[in-house]
Amino acid sequence: MLALAPDASSRKAGSKLGAAGPWSEAGSCDEGTVWGLCKGSGSKPYQTVVDIADAAGPAYKCSCPSRKFPCKHALGLLLLWAGGDGVVTSAQPPDWAGEWIEGRRKRATEKRAAGAAGSSSGSGDPEAARRRAERRAERVTAGATELEQRLTDLVRGGLAGAEQAGYGLWEETAARMVDAQASGLAARVRELGAVPASGPGWPVRLLEECALLHLLDQGWLRREQLPEGLAATVRSRIGLSASPDGPPVRDRWLVLAQYDTADARLTTRRIWLYGAESTRTVLLLSYGAAGRAPELALPVGLALDAEVAAYPGAGQLRAALGEQFAPPVPATSRPPGVTPAQAADRYGTALRDDPWLDSVPVTLDRVVPTPDGDSWQLADADGDQALPLTPAARSRPGLWRLVALSGGAPVKVFGECGHRGFTPLTAWPEGPGEAVRLC
Amino acid sequence: MNSTSAPAGSPVANVWEELVTAALLGTERRTPPGSAPGREAPVALLDAAAVETVRRRAGLRPGRAARRPEPAARDPRPPLPAAAARRLSMLLADRPGAGGGGRRGAAPDLMELLPQWLAAANTRGFAAPPEMLPALLDAARGRTDLRPAALAFAGQRAVWLARLNPEWRFALRATPGGGTALPAPEDTDSVQQLWQEGLFAERVALLAAIRAREPAAARDLLATTWATERAEDRLMFLDSLRTGLAAEDEPFLEQALSDRSRNVRATAAELLSALPGSALAARMAVRAGACVAVDHTGDAPALTVEAPHECDASMERDGVVPKAPAGRGERSWWFGQLVESTPLTTWSGRLGGRTPEEIVALPVADDWQSELHAAWCRAAVRQRDADWARALLGAPEAPEAGGPGAVSLAERAKLLGTLGSGERAEWVAGFISAHGLSEAFQLLGVCAVPWAAPLGRAVVDALNIARDAGSYPWSFSGVMGLAERCLDPSEVSRLDGLLAVPDETEDASPGAGGYWAEAFQRLVTTLRLRAAMTEELGAPLGRG
């Protein structure tokens, strides 16, 4: 439940409100709504409602002035309800809660109807849309050409110069890519700026990244000659938006991991799902403005009976969550795992479809977290091979949860395996036990 | 990943190295492999580098496994109930520095409940969930008072973890022998070997462990090497005899009175004086007895004190420190040391068969009362003499109990420690009913948790009175905090009437009523939480 919190302080505040003390008139109904009055610092108690029936994740409303979302009152209410100690009683919602829920349900139905209509008729004038897309492609082409020029200039003058040029030069180029509406290029360029300060071996990393950027530019400039799947991959890497066009796949999806990354503008949430029957692993992405948690929240360890639809592009794992057929339930199974050698193979094979791929999602079976100098690795319990952890994963608190969970014994670990190493995200003990979040 | 499929030095690896060199220097200066110099060279280099990069990444293979850590011992304790495990993770999430800060409002202070939760989990003998050990160790790292309970709960796996993370080194220090198992006391060969060859910390741990089970065996072990130990080590080892101190230790201690080191001598004397039957205690009794007498010449009998005129060699041998601290007279300094080392049981015979109460009630001539009573207090604490402690504490309602009497609050708190928990709670309840809460904090700190019913009632009543008096609740935040942690959760219904915001009276501080309601709300919420915590852990299990 606390995984829903937008940040640590809300988590803390919410967990405190998860006790009967400040609550009154708390209730819930079978349709998946919880409400209650929370005594705050003012004279009028806050009215808090949470709707957990929606397939897209819980929705919250609270009369408190907090701009955090969900606020601590909503979190506390959910905790109180989950605690099940009889404070939240089954009842009909009071008027102030009922109105909001009804309004929400109505809007959701309308939206669904509108969505169905929209996809059949297409949006607006197809001719105008085609012209818009053409204009955009022209701008991206201009951006890619300019970037090619920057890269060849850099290589002609020598990467050694990049160390002196510093961050500012790359920031400027990134801004030009934003103007060219190529957000994928912009993000890659911004990362280039940080490479020269990233410690020993930076020329190798800088050349690698420059070469892949060059490859992406060339892919865009010659996209007509590429097979359709690869062309779609290039479009998505460049940063052109697409909509999911794969057939909906209904499965029992296990939530393997959920984690957020944030920059100054945007919070990005990644949720990895594994389909128990389809054996597919898919990625759900959702976004929130800076400081707000993205709306979609699927705590690790749950399983949902739902449909997902894939986004276009060869080797792309991104999918969109479609209809959910039942509320999520605790998962009873774990994803099957592979050995470290097979995991490395998987990454190598995946590069065939998408050479820009930094990592692939993999579950490792029977590995032992093992110290290796100042670093750590996940060692095959039944062999002599091991995957090193990425430098970033080494400094996260999740590493120690993983080490503690293992205690020197084999564990099952889900994570991302790539050229920088392995990033553990979730682990299961060898014996019975729930999934443990590491991120 | 560590290695590519192409070993260094092979032609393929060379191609990549040449590409990197050319890129680093610039194609103007260095022609990349497999291309002609000129305008197209940078593009050719980037093309080749792209191919190489993808090829290198696709060829990555796992590295060789390092030596795997020795597996941690299995924890035989049963796992926590699910609800209790969730509660623990919430308590641990409330760490200071994890955001927030500032005024607490009506929300309970979860971190303060952690000690109780740990104690309850430990009495029930549950195992800690392994994945929560890092948070638990981090919490214990920040708060030394949490460490014993946290480490007991964390078990062997925490010690295993602490060996891998230097931030948790304290767990190794706190665990005897740094986690390596100590030999059983019956295994005399191993004991002797560790005692002869072990590191200092291991030897201290070994001695303490044996002392706890077989006091005599520990003393004998110490005696085998006593003469060859260094002075600092002798002091530490001697200190471990404090556990299970008994009359049988006297010969050894008596011998230590002639030790070369003054600190060792002082510790030996202190330990001997805690043995009322010891020869040292008898010698001290004779000395002190000569200083105190009953004077019948006045209207009523009174005590007179004639402090010693010198500190002779035999007194010094018995641990009397001859040099007084700055600002104290030498004679009263010596006198205080004689009285505190004198068995309290000898005073009755020396002072006309009076009971401790009668003796304490006697007036003392010439301003000696505070010196004499303070020394008796120290003696009562050291000898754990409840009769004398009771006499020195006096009636809790007595007016001087609240004021600056002969016996300070700190001394009272120590004296209370010699009484049974029920009597202690009753005395403090009486004190609070008579004198309010302003001086009760230290006394409440020595009472058993949860507070006995009369004590809890006295505290709640006193808080109620304080509220009605119109002051702000933060003047009582110390007591409030204690009440949150120590009141019996079953008392929660008594607090219901205090939750409302009262009407503001004229002489009340502005807004105080609201703050009091908030403080009482927090108290009630915390008590409810504690009740839930205990319930989640289930009934205490019998050990074994």
Class inferred from helices and paired strands of chain A: alpha+beta
**Helicity of chain B, in percent?**
40-55%
Rounded to an integer in angstroms, the radius of gyration calculated over CA atoms of chain B is 34 Å
The tally of beta strands of chain A, per DSSP, is 17
Give Rg of chain A in angstroms: 24 Å
Number of strands of chain B: 3
Overall structural domain count of chain A = 4
Biased composition (Basic and acidic residues) (chain B): 67-77
Region (Disordered) (chain B): 56-80
Pfam families (chain B): DUF5691
Any overview of this molecule?
- The complex is a heterodimer of chains A (439) and B (544).
- Chain A has 439 residues and is α+β, with helices and mostly antiparallel strands.
- Chain A folds into four domains: 2-113, no CATH class; 129-238; 249-330, OB fold (Dihydrolipoamide Acetyltransferase, E2P) (Beta Barrel); 340-437, OB fold (Dihydrolipoamide Acetyltransferase, E2P), CATH 2.40.50.
- Chain A has eleven helices and 17 strands.
- A six-stranded antiparallel beta sheet of chain A has the order 14-13-12-15-16-17. Chain A has a five-stranded mixed beta sheet with strand order 4-3-2-1-5, with helices on both faces. Chain A has a five-stranded mixed β-barrel with strand order 6-7-8-10-9.
- In chain A, helix 4 (126-157) runs antiparallel to helix 7 and helix 5 (160-179) packs antiparallel against helix 6.
- Chain A is globular, with a radius of gyration of 24 Å.
- Chain B has 544 residues and is mainly alpha-helical.
- Chain B folds into five domains: 11-58, no CATH class; 109-179, no CATH class; 188-275; 282-372, no CATH class; 435-537.
- Chain B is 54% helix and 2% strand.
- Chain B is built from 27 helices and three strands.
- In chain B, helix 8 (188-197) runs antiparallel to helix 9, helix 11 runs parallel beside helix 13 and helix 19 runs antiparallel to helix 20.
- The model of chain B is unreliable at 4-8 and 97-102 (pLDDT under 50).
- The chains are: A alpha+beta (439), B mainly alpha (544).
